[in-house]
Amino acid sequence: MPAEARRAGQDTYQGGMRRVARVVLLDPDDRILLLHGHEPDDPADDWWFTPGGGVEGDETREQAALRELAEETGITEVELGPVLWQRRCSFPFAGRRWDQDEWYYLARTAQTTTVAAGLTELERRSVAGARWWTCRELDRAHETVYPTRLAGLLRTLLDEGPPAGPVTLDTEIV
Q: Is 12 helix (H, G, I), strand (E, B) or coil?
């Protein structure tokens, strides 16, 4: 059985929603790390997104965030902070619809070299790389970025610091 099929079977679902932990990873220059993804059979259908993925088995969201970050980027030297944002989203990908309850954790690192050595077969077919973005670059980007208001959210985070509690973002249905 392929790794992503094993993992999908282990993902924790609650109320029909896939539980997901994502990481808003900032380097010492306050750049954010985003992954460049695309439909497995259509590289022209592409977007940028934060590292992260489904909670497996009985792991916590914090554990899932750190595991996914290590698998997708090779970055393990991180200081995981609070949950910044929560959102629900629904989108088509790889021939199916994904309904997710996502929690976005703040994290900081000085480790800026990425190596995506732990990708599943599906991720190897759909992740084209990673890039560190400044807030200004993100604000001026013409590419699709998820969550869609990420540039403004990042600006608020950098200007005001983490919120007192998680901010609920608008539901996104693609």
A: coil
| 132-153: pLDDT as tens digits | 999 999 999 999 999 989 999 9
Contact criterion met (CB below 8 Å) for 53 and 65: no
* Phi, psi of 161, rounded to the nearest 5 degrees: 85, 180
Largest CA distance in the chain: 46
Model's pTM, two decimal places? 0.88
β-strand pairing of 127-133 with 32-39: antiparallel
Cis peptide before 28 (omega within 30 of 0): no
- What dihedral angle (degrees, nearest 10) is formed by the CA atoms of 130, 134, 135, 138? -50
Q: CA torsion angle for 100, 38, 49, 66 (degrees, to 10)?
A: 70
